[in-house]
Amino acid sequence: MDKIRIVGGNALTGTIPISGAKNAALPLMIASLLTDETLTLENVPRLADVNLLTRILVNHGVDYALNGKRAGEDLLTGQTVSLTARSITDTTAPYELVSKMRASFWVIGPLLARMGGCRVSLPGGCAIGTRPVDLFLSGLADLGADIDVDAGYVVAKAPNGLKGGRVAFPKVSVGATHTIMMAATLARGETVLENAAREPEVVDLARCLTAMGARIEGAGTSTIRIEGVDRLRGARHRVVSDRIEAGTYAMAVAMTGGDVVLEGAEADLLAGPLDVLRQVGAEITETNRGIRVKRNGHGINAADVETQPFPGFPTDLQAQFMALMTRAKGTSRITETIFENRFMHVQELARFGARIHLDGQVATVEGVERLTGAPVMATDLRASVSLVIAGLVAEGETIVNRVYHLDRGFERLEEKISRCGAQVERISG
Ligand code: EPZ
Q1: Closest residue (by CA) to atom 20 of ligand 1?
Q2: What is the position in ligand 1's atom list of the atom closest to the CA of 26?
Q3: Is beta strand 92-93 parallel, antiparallel or unpaired with respect to 79-84?
Q4: In this structure, which topology does domain 24-238 adopt according to CATH?
Q5: Each residue's pLDDT tens digit, 158-214
């Protein structure tokens, strides 16, 4: 298993290209199941999760083509992927594949809408919490589907097609919004989603579906209206830039000091976290190339954050912000409201000498003057990258184990930060 070795102490200076968003690319790829024509996606990140979802789609009968590399092309620019679901040969999404990645459960929406039935394995729990699927099931039932759970599989049927309806989510869910929105594009009549997720990835999916011929209004607000159509066609779409990757590197620069342009990052998708970073002492400016993050000399101030659905502070940046606060002047309170168990980085950050007290959903972080390098490991993607951020300022050597978590969601992380002066290398093994 690969490891990452970091020797802390270097400021980051230079340019970091921001990849296409993993959390947009995954539902966009799933949307290819809705049409028998080709969906071409540009700026798809090279990530383990993208590869896994490709396997799942191929299993349903999707043809997959990757564009060839052109001479002189930077390896850090995203790839162009074409997906064609001319015919769906298998409507079962098996346990062996779905259990590896929760987002693959979302195929249930397009498969049901297009094929009138499917069997999709329940995703099960995962490291960050129980993550149930009740909102998906009740949403699909609101569109007229018959839903059964049998031997660990959701069996969904709508032999005469789905019909539009009102879906009022009792809780904001990104995945349920993606899934029901996709299903409703092919339902008869109008669907109204209330309390829908407003995340930029939902907006990106709606844009792509619209290019495919769907009729959607209100994506990015909490009420989305979808007028079903008979069929969708192929389209070409560019995946939105990864706000979580950009926010992660912004926090890394705030931590190490330095001056970095996050090329291609979109400040309006990251307004909340950037405000917090300004508050703690980073200088943030928008440039025509992206977002510039600087911190000179002075230390980091403490700030409190609470995770919330978009446009609030994202849960996917909570671990990274906690790493930053371990070096703050003063005490910060970090409250996690989205997932009940997303604090696995706390005990690993303690290995660097961080002082963190956990009480239910609230972590109190007392900033310390120095962190010291340590061997660490984490059990999810964002927790792992928080350890990299701590390692970048820790004295001496840090070894981050189980790098496959990072490879699920950060494209060529060590290359991107070593180009900016970090002492970091991958140790294969
Ligand atoms: C998406 O997960 C992201 N994943 C997550 O990113 C992100 O943390 C999360 O949204 C919140 O922003 C992808 O986009 C692939 P939810 P998702 O449904 O859709 C509860 C990362 O690190 N809930 O919005 O699975 C759920 O348990 C990942 O990139 C129900 O109760 O998250 C949670 O408490 C991790 N019933 C809350 O809603 C349901 O049926 C929000 O989860 C569905 C969800």
Answers
A1: 131
A2: 15
A3: unpaired
A4: UDP-n-acetylglucosamine1-carboxyvinyl-transferase; Chain (3.65.10)
A5: 999 999 999 999 999 999 999 999 999 999 999 999 999 999 999 999 999 999 999
